[in-house]
Design brief:
Two copies of one chain form a homodimer. Chain A is mainly α. The first copy, chain A, has nine helices and no strands.
Chain lengths: 220, 220
DNA sequence: ATACCTTTAGAACAAGCGTTCGATGGTACG
DNA sequence: CGTACCATCGAACGCTTGTTCTAAAGGTAT
């Protein structure tokens, strides 16, 4: 069902000059490994996933995993870090195409929903999982970028609120919108099949009407 | 911080005639055990929680736990089962006081939010955790009651929709509302301190305006 | 062929896991 | 006083966990 074969384009951390030919081909297999780990983490949870599970699901031997990564918590960190980087980057790109606050809000929602649809496991691991043994600064780094991402939305909401005098406080509103975008996969597990664009638009409409008091709607 | 000492009133499964004096005093300690387990499950996750953690947090010895419960997955089942029972019961009672659809919706939201506020760990365990080794019918029983609870909301939404011709499909809308009520504890982790009643009202207003197209609001 | 580097896999490790067992102290009643 | 029962606990069981170690297979360049 869920494809997720396409790599998380942006932050593959390759810093090499393009000329170098040999350059250690471990990158593609690392991608496979991360994708498999993300899927398993997403379904069984971080603590519920064993390294042997990941080995089995990725087709890489147990000890082989340690050739590509430093260990279990590094796997989680790498997944979360890449995902939030990709979200930040694609959001920034989407936002650069419009200027009016409501249009930016629509762009942000569409971007987040569509990315979540393309890489469900990665986004789920980013938002639901946290390493119990995470050493620390790596988790903090992810948390920092996460709040950066939240701030992007809050700033948009502030602008929307400023031009339409919305009655709902922005931090609260941003939490509600994130909750809607991260759902379903909870409670109802909506059986209505609706495509990504429609879902994003529905969330946007539902939210904007509630947030601004009923008046607004973006272009088109 | 979170108190949660008050027991889950409704379904303590005591079926004894009130006269019987001895009646095995294990009930209160079971309650303590379940509360401790719920808190630990909520913070560390089901798989991330060891029986030794629960023993430590509840003040009951590791082997003592097995005097009160059949094992780890039974603990989870008992927590989830009691919580959904309590939610169903208190929702039914709250709904019986009003008749107009929008008033019922407000009652449902207020009930759910306030219950979640009184027993955050229990509700979190109910909605976020699932037993990997759960044998089965017990998990199915919880799932059944959960969808019963969802149906209660959906029926209310259907009635609201019928009398105000809302443009959003009901299953989708119910997912969104549940998502809002179950958030925060994700993304923004809203630092605005707002009391329970206000939060419930904000969610209700935000949702109803978005759902009905801007017109409606309940009494008062 | 020889040497070298990348990549893989099997075996093993100590630590932690859920669960069971046997024993202990405490009341209640003959 | 003795016997039965309830509640509780420390110790131990077999198994799984994350991780490391050692050796070997494939490839390329000498």
């Amino acid at each position: 069902m869920s494809d997720e074969s396409t790599p998380l384009t942006p932050p593959a951390e390759s810093g090499s000059v393009s000329g170098a030919p040999s350059e250690s081909q471990r990158a593609p297999k690392l991608e496979t490994l991360l994708a498999a780990a993300a899927t398993t983490f997403a379904t069984r949870g971080y603590s519920g996933t064993s390294m042997r599970d990941i080995a089995h699901d990725s087709g890489i031997s147990l000890s082989g995993i340690y050739y590509y990564t430093r260990g279990k918590s590094s796997l989680l960190y790498e997944i979360q870090s890449r995902t939030i980087d990709a979200l930040l980057a694609s959001a920034a790109q989407a936002l650069s195409t419009v200027t009016r606050p409501l249009d930016q809000l629509l762009q942000f929602v569409e971007n987040h929903v569509s990315y979540s649809n393309d890489h469900p496991a990665f986004v789920r691991v980013l938002s639901h999982e946290t390493a119990p043994d995470g050493t620390d600064e790596r988790r903090e780094a992810v948390e920092l970028k996460r709040s950066e991402y939240v701030k992007v939305l809050r700033d948009i909401l502030d602008r929307v609120r400023h031009e339409s005098s919305a009655p709902v406080p922005t931090p609260f509103a941003s939490d509600m919108l994130f909750a809607m975008m991260s759902g379903p996969r909870q409670w109802g597990v909506s059986d209505t099949e609706l495509n990504v664009g429609m879902a994003a638009r529905l969330i946007y409409d539902l939210f904007v009407r509630g947030f601004t008091g009923g008046a607004a709607a973006a272009r088109q």
